[in-house]
């Protein structure tokens, strides 16, 4: 049996970041990936954040296959055929060190794997890890689906993404329930560069993102997104499994309904669908996070439920957790302390980082939207009606208009409800 210092299960951003940092610390490291190459199985919207990425590969923007630097972020609500939008554009984000880029994971993950290989990581593809190997209670390696496929290791890092089969077997399972997992579908729609830049008012090479709530998910807890790539748009929608099951909407029907909305239709008009992808997103947040370590094992990225859905962040949490896990694995191997206690250094570092702090901050959010569904349905409707009334110029005086708006608001949501909603939202978000 071949032996390594560190075995990483899964070649996504979390696993490859873990492998890179372990190898940089001098560890003999291998990544085992079930796909033909890293990236083939992976799906993201996908906005890649600079800070977390450059911590793993400094100056990555000089060689990574990036689509466009994001200079504008728009947020909006759809209510029926109406659209309410707000956004922020900052041309500074078009230059190094940037804030974020759009990427296509099939290209980006493959490139990241090449950086890991340059740092000395061995990458074994087309191989599924089936279980951990134990000596007594101690984890001593992994069993793969290949003949004579056992590999030994001092530390195993579980970066297998949302399904977390091995983590579940190891008793490090995140709480996967219909209310902690979202299903997302996405299309890549090809469009000529100039057309794309015209439609989004962008200078050549610049990019924009749009996040849409409300009727973009038929009022379900979730989001729709449209991101500009070099010569295509990534358009998708994701919603929690629980309301999807309850309402019998399929993710594909949600996407088709989104594409038919007047605002969206115009953006994708004339484009040709090149790819269709689907994936789960772990949305349970802080309350569904598993324990992040045990003797000889660390859990990173989606396997550990590290996704901040509100801020559309997952890849950066994955990379940050991966980097820390690789560093802690090396530290524990060097000190010879692979006990559960020794490995808990990783969880401590994670709790001190923005990753767990952010998840903790928004720990009430999922439950809040569950108990206040009108935030995603009634309030967008109220806002759209109010804007319609306010911006329609006729012979009604503005004072009368304001009265009409207030009447409409209280008809749709009683005063008491409004006050408790504001208080609840304050507690969940601020
Ligand atoms: P993954 O990327 O899922 O990688 C896991 C890897 O493990 C895969 O390569 C898989 O093939 C491999 N694997 C699994 N099991 C085994 C096994 N047993 N043996 C061997 N290999 C195995 N995040 C953002 O930051 N920005 C966004 O815009 C964004 N948009 C998103 C849109 C969608 C539709 C989705 C689904 C997610 C989005 N996310 C976004 C979240 C982000 O994609 C994830 O948080 C991130 O990919 C997690 O990385 P990971 O390495 O933990 O898992």
- Tally of distinct domains: 3
CATH architecture of the largest domain: 3-Layer(bba) Sandwich
Cα separation of the termini: 52 Å
Structural class: alpha/beta
Descriptive overview:
This protein is α/β, with parallel strands linked by helices. It folds into 3 domains: 2-67 and 103-175 and 285-352, FAD/NAD(P)-binding domain (3-Layer(bba) Sandwich), CATH 3.50.50; 181-282, D-Amino Acid Oxidase, subunit A, domain 2 (D-Amino Acid Oxidase, Chain A, domain 2); 366-429, no CATH class. Helices cover 38% and strands 27% of the residues. The chain has 15 helices and 17 strands. The protein has helices spanning 13-24, 50-56, 105-118, 165-169, 193-199, 241-247, 251-260, 262-268, 315-335, 340-352, 354-361, 365-371, 378-391, 398-412, 415-429; strands at 2-9, 29-32, 47-49, 68-79, 82-89, 100-102, 122-124, 129-135, 138-144, 150-158, 181-190, 207-214, 222-228, 232-240, 272-282, 293-294, 297-299. The strands form 2 sheets. Strands 3, 4, 5, 6, 11, 12, 13, 14 and 15 form a 9-stranded mixed β-sheet that branches. α1 runs parallel beside α3, α1 (13-24) packs parallel to α9 (315-335) and α2 (50-56) packs parallel to α9. The chain starts with a strand and ends with a helix. It binds flavin-adenine dinucleotide. Flavin-adenine dinucleotide (FAD) binds next to α1, α4, β11, β14 and β15. The site of flavin-adenine dinucleotide (FAD) has 41 residues, from α1, α4, β11, β14 and β15.
């Amino acid at each position: 049996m071949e032996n390594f210092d560190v075995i990483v299960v899964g070649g996504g951003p979390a696993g490859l970041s873990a492998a890179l940092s372990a190898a940089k610390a001098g560890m003999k490291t291998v990544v085992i990936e079930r796909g033909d190459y890293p990236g083939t199985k992976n799906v993201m919207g996908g906005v890649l954040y600079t800070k977390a990425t450059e911590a793993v590969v400094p100056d990555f923007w000089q060689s990574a296959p990036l689509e466009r630097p994001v200079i504008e972020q728009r947020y909006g609500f759809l209510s029926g055929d109406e659209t309410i939008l707000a956004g922020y554009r900052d041309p500074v984000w078009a230059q190094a060190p940037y804030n974020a880029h759009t990427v296509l994971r099939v290209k980006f993950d493959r490139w990241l794997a090449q950086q890991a290989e340059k740092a000395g990581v061995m990458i074994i593809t087309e191989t599924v890890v089936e279980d951990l190997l134990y000596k007594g209670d101690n984890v001593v390696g992994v069993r793969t689906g290949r003949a004579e496929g056992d590999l030994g290791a001092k530390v195993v890092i579980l970066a297998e993404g949302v399904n977390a089969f091995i983590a579940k077997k190891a008793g490090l399972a995140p709480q996967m329930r219909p209310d902690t997992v979202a299903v997302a579908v996405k299309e890549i729609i090809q469009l000529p560069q100039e057309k794309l830049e015209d439609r989004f008012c962008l200078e050549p090479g610049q990019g924009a993102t749009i996040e849409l709530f409300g009727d973009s998910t038929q009022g379900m807890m979730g989001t729709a997104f449209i991101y500009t790539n070099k010569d295509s748009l990534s358009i998708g929608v994701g919603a929690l499994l629980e309301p999807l099951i309850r309402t019998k909407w399929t993710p594909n029907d949600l996407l088709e309904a989104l594409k038919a909305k007047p605002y969206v239709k115009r953006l994708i008009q004339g484009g040709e669908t090149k790819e269709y992808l689907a994936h789960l997103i772990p949305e349970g947040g802080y309350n569904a996070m598993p324990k992040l370590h045990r003797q000889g094992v660390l859990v990173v990225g989606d396997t550990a439920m590290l996704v901040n859905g509100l801020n559309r962040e997952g890849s950066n949490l994955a990379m940050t957790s991966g980097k820390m896990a690789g560093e802690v694995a090396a530290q524990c191997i060097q000190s010879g302390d692979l006990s559960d206690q020794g490995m808990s250094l990783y969880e401590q570092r994670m709790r001190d980082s923005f990753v767990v702090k952010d998840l903790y901050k928004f720990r009430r959010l999922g439950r809040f939207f569950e108990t206040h569904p009108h935030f995603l349905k009634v309030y967008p409707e109220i806002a759209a009606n109010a804007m319609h009334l306010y911006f329609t110029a006729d012979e009604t005086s503005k004072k009368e208009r304001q009265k009409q708006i207030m009447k409409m608001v209280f008809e749709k949501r009683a005063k008491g409800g409004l006050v408790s909603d504001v208080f609840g939202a304050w507690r969940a978000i601020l």
